[in-house]
User: Which sequence fits this backbone?
């Protein structure tokens, strides 16, 4: 009898193609939406985390000015000197690279094209600390660095804006008021998490920048890389002590500089991604609920419509549990088929979405399982219970149902 | 002399009451009725007289409020829903006014359905269903779905479905109610043949006096009770059929 019933359920599903498709569609949408939403959210989270890692985990930045600026501000904090850079190099053993940096925004001109970008004067160490790689050409040499040669390395965006597809290395561009020879193009780092273009800049030797662009020896930031990601905390505390001493801050006075730690930044970001994950959980729960209600509706309507069919079967001599078994098998089959299609569509959708938004895609088996079993159970429950109610009616009442 | 065989159907003082208190409706009011094997009983009466309710009670589609319902001397009033389903499965066949065929399902599969619940093997099911369809004159239409058949043809499918199990009792509730007069005669002649040639006991509800004459006996209902009971004149049926 079980086999006959299952066969009968199959035949009913095939026979009522439209109703079956609509019923399964409820589950497809329920499962698919949840899976797509959660996977896309996960991709976004991974993208954020990955971008933070790209910034470099063992990088520290020292900048003048206190972290918190009150209203009105007071005296601007003094900038750094080259001697500060030397002191850091000599006195903090855990430091592997130190690069002073000064920057300003300037207009770049080549031929009839111009483009405004951040111009940075720094030393070779910057490339190591920021983990920049050359795409074409070269970085500047130590000699060029020491001698303040009019050479520069450009970011990928600058290459595109000024030269398009043409070769830039060897050409001269105008940077603010000076002329400067392009010697290298830096490989793209891609758009960062916050929509800041990391490729829109020009780097030249610090001396060149100070002499010919800013006209001052001030250093606006010092980039430091610790030897290992684990030593950043120690480097940071040593930096704080050293800089307080060099800037002659008496005990009790607040710092007039800030040490930024990428690891700290990463930690605070991970709390953001944690919140994002919680939000995703919420979205998943709501999607499941909405999907579940959709499935519930279509199942209720479909089974209620079939009350007369149940009446006919009862009149012909089917026992309530025989009719129920058939409806149960139908609900299980439709929910399972719908669930599998939903999983496939959800995955395909989120994969395509992740690709389109240039985000990594990773599979979450737990959400697949949860979405599938939740939707399938809702489908089965709401296929089963109304059928049970109908099968328990007196046959005459079921038959009279319109 | 041995004791006489109990009648096929015996209703004793059966009442069916809908609603409660002031709005109480007595669809059947201590009605008693006896039907013997081989009869073709037409039940007549105005609407609300209890004729359909009596049929639903006899068909075990509805439970009586009180009274006794004996089938071949066995009390059915106390059976569970499942036992009643098995009773219907093995002893009854139904023909309804609204046909009540499964939609989008071929005539053959509709007729096979009662055999499925009787666990008749597939091959035998097919043979018997085809035979029943032939009997009602629907050979060649086995693959048609109800939507592809005329009303008369649908009702014939329903009759085939009812007789495919060789029931002890065929219950027909206004079987021609939705049909035009030519089709009515067709269906009535078919029922008559089933009664006379196959010996199937038939209980039919109708409100058309002409059609009642096709049977062997006419029972009149009024206000939930049997008010008349007479045999038909066998010749009158033929004349009624020709006159219609």
Assistant:
């Amino acid at each position: 009898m079980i086999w006959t019933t299952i066969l009968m359920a199959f035949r009913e599903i095939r026979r009522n193609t439209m109703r079956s498709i609509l019923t399964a569609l409820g589950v497809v949408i329920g499962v698919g939406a949840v899976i797509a939403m959660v996977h896309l959210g996960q991709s976004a989270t991974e993208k954020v985390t990955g971008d933070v890692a790209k910034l470099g985990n063992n990088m520290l930045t020292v900048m003048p000015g206190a972290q918190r600026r009150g209203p009105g501000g007071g005296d601007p904090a003094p900038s750094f000197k080259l001697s500060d850079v030397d002191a850091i190099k000599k006195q903090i053993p855990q430091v592997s690279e130190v690069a002073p940096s000064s920057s300003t925004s300037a207009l770049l001109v080549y031929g009839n094209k111009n483009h405004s970008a951040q111009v940075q004067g720094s030393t070779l160490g910057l490339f190591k600390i920021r983990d920049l790689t050359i795409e074409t050409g070269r970085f500047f040499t130590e000699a060029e660095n020491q001698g303040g040669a009019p050479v520069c390395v450009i970011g990928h965006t600058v290459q595109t804006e000024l030269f398009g597809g043409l070769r830039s290395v060897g050409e001269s561009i105008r940077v603010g008021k000076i002329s400067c020879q392009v010697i290298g193009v830096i490989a793209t780092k891609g758009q960062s998490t916050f929509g800041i273009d990391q490729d829109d800049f020009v780097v030249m030797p610090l001396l060149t920048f100070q002499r010919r662009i800013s006209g001052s020896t001030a250093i606006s930031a010092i980039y430091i890389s610790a030897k290992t990601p684990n030593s950043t905390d120690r480097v940071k505390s040593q930096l704080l002590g050293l800089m307080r001493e060099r800037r002659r801050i008496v005990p009790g006075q607040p710092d007039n500089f800030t040490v930024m730690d990428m690891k700290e930044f990463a930690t605070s970001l991970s709390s953001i991604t944690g919140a994002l994950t919680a939000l995703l959980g919420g979205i998943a729960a709501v999607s499941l609920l909405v999907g579940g209600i959709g499935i519930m509706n279509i199942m209720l309507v479909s089974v209620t419509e079939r009350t007369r069919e149940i009446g006919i079967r009862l009149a012909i001599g089917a026992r309530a549990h025989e009719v129920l078994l058939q409806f149960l098998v139908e609900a299980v089959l439709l929910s399972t088929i719908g669930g599998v299609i939903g999983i496939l569509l959800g995955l395909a959708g989120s994969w395509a979405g992740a690709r389109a938004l240039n985000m990594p895609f990773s599979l979450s088996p737990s959400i697949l399982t949860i979405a599938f079993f939740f939707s399938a159970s809702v489908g089965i429950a709401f296929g089963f219970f109304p059928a049970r109610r109908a099968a328990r009616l007196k046959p005459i009442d079921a038959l009279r149902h319109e | 002399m041995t004791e006489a065989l109990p009648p096929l159907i015996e209703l004793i003082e059966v009442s069916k009451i809908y609603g409660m208190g002031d709005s109480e409706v007595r669809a059947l009011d201590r009605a008693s009725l006896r039907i013997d094997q081989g009869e073709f009983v037409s039940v007549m009466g105005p609407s609300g007289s209890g004729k359909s309710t009596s049929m639903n009670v006899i068909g075990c589609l509805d439970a009586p409020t009180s009274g006794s319902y004996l089938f071949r001397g066995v009390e059915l009033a106390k059976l569970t829903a499942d036992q009643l389903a098995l009773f219907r499965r093995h002893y009854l066949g139904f023909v309804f006014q609204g046909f009540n065929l499964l939609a989008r399902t071929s005539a053959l599969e509709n007729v096979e359905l009662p055999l499925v619940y009787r666990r008749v093997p597939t091959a035998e099911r097919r043979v018997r269903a085809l035979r029943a369809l032939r009997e009602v004159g629907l050979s060649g239409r086995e693959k048609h779905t109800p939507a592809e058949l005329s009303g008369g043809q649908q009702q014939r499918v329903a009759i085939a479905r009812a007789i495919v199990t060789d029931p002890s009792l065929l219950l027909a509730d206004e079987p021609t109610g939705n049909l035009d007069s030519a089709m009515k005669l067709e269906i009535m002649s078919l029922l008559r043949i089933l009664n006379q040639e196959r010996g199937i006991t038939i209980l039919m509800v109708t409100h058309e006096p002409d059609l009642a004459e096709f049977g062997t006996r006419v029972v009149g209902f009024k206000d939930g009770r049997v008010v008349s009971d007479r045999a038909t004149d066998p010749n009158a049926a033929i004349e009624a059929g020709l006159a219609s």
Observations:
- Chain B is about 35% helix and 25% strand.
- Chain B has one domain: 9-243.
